Fold each of these.
Amino acid sequence: MSLEKEDDVAIQTCAARTFEKTCALDDPWGCTMYAFHLSKGRGVPVNRDMALAVLKKSCKYGPEDEACSYGRGLREQLLTAKQSAK
């Protein structure tokens, strides 16, 4: 799992690529997890704008879906950080 072995670059890179591919197939969890990796720079360079963009696909199954609720929380964190940086 991508949250394990946070210091293992190979694992994090593989996880980020996998989530990127599943997000491209419009999988909500794939998009949420890819956004997580982008937001933290795990296996990919930090790209908060791209993370916000892919989170738009996280609520495919509605607001009650776990991918959506986690994605909304991540989106709020990213937006708060963006506002703080200004």
Amino acid sequence: MSSFNLFDAEEKSLEQAEDLRRRLEQAPGPVRDGIASLIEAYSRSVREQRRLVRVSDRLQAQLASVNQELGKRKAEAEDALESLKAAQESLVQAEKLASLGALVGGVAHEINTPVGIALSCASHLADSTAAIAKLFEADDISVDDFERFMATVKDTTGLILSNVERAAELIRSFKQVAVDRTSSERRRFDLAAYIRETLASLGPHLRQAGHAVRLACPDGIVMDSYPGALSQVLGNFIMNSLVHGFDPGQLGTLSITVEQEEAGSVRLVYADDGKGVPEDHLGRIFDPFFTTRRGSGGSGLGLHIVYNLVTGPLGGSVAAESPEGGGTVFTLSMPLSP
């Protein structure tokens, strides 16, 4: 029954009560007074109910307005969250491309040296060939001239071949790593060989820093996984050590150790012997945008990308620790086929 129907019934009850009081005008005084008191009390009750109904209606209207505003704010918050996620994803992709760009720059610089040597040798060989041809045409070539030319040919062709092979190896390693990083495709690969390719592609950065690199990984461990993700993880570990792990001029050692824990999984431990990580930072090291080098080139996304790649495509887990003796250790557990 609605409040309006309820009040209609109460009004009728009040009218009936007033009619009863008029009919009891001749009744004894106490009876009349009692009836009047009851009617007055009932009237006050009706007025109070009406007031409460008005208050309830006002509160319901306010509640509906608040609910509407909350719904609007919720929709705005959800839109903002989606925008934030999209922005974070864009930053993560930009960070990946930036690391690939740094890889390209380093490899291009590294390739420049063997290609330059090969070009100089080829030019020298061309000059020597032209000189010996001129002597031959003039029928003025001696045994000594021919022997010197052959020695030149032997030395220069050896240098050309070795340097071109070095450049080809760099290009091959970089091509495979770059393709894997950009395609994110799953394939079978030998873990030890692929780690060596990744280290070769990072060679320019490592040689510039001067740190020693040690790899201990048994041959024959074959993964059916995402090599691009693994390359990105190792690259981020190494660049994190180069940027954060050592003071300027300090030389150290970077190591990668791989063990097959059991059938179907491997344990990869990456470590450096640098400054280490403060204890209060370890719990936040994989958080997005957490960096101790804000304003100095640190984006705070490198290790966040590592965490997402290890726990996502690679289907494993990653943990960080900083031993008391110094350095930083990252331990990965990964299935051979996630």
Amino acid sequence: MINRVVLVGRITKDVDHRVTTSGASVVSFTLAVNRNFTSASGEREADFINCVTWRASADFMKNYVKKGNLLAVDGRMQTRNYEDNDGRTVYITEVVADSVQLLESRSSNQSDNSGQYRNKYEANQSNDAQDELYESTKNLIADDDLPF
């Protein structure tokens, strides 16, 4: 059986970080993923996909990911259920992210309005490696090149 999901989209709001009673970090977030086509009225539509990630990826997201950031998510679909206060069974389908990558972030210098983005961020990269990667790739992608 195969259960694999790969998404690229923008986070719709700042992450919801929690810590379980056993001390594990967990982050819930919603990713807006554009569809490849437009509606009959010519507007681009998006799907809003609920996601969750745990431990190191959750800590990374808590520290570095903000509303509007472009993320790549690799994980699996999961459906769970619970009984609400009225006795009804509620089903939740979400992506459990094994890997989350920040594909862009504005330069830490907010006065840079050139539209250049920092291309990367994985939880285990050092700041020096991130700065070196930024310098080597900062002119590759401009706002106008992005499909959304």
Amino acid sequence: MAESKTILIAEDSSVILNLTKKILELQNYTVVSAKNGGEVLKKVQDQKIDAILMDLNIPVKNGMECTKEIRANENPQISQIPIIAVTGNANNYTLEQFKEAGINAYLPKPLDFDMLVQTVKEYVH
């Protein structure tokens, strides 16, 4: 059996986090979580992450700032991690801003779990 891929969920709502985690674990992903931008940056340094589901409205450093920092990392294993933005108010950002920050894909809230699984599979092989 293939080794399980690790998805980091950056989300400060425990309800959304727990639901998303369950959905991804059913797909045989290993899930780690971060409640704020500081934790996100620490986790990508500490372990191999295959993709990040990044809520854009997390405390400490928001998802856009985190994404930019990850993209600027010297280690390609970190700077190349697929980042999927998750946000309830994407209207605050343009697709152009997502691209500039280095976001690979974007999912609106409330999350469509079929779309979530499909998007993660697209970026995590």
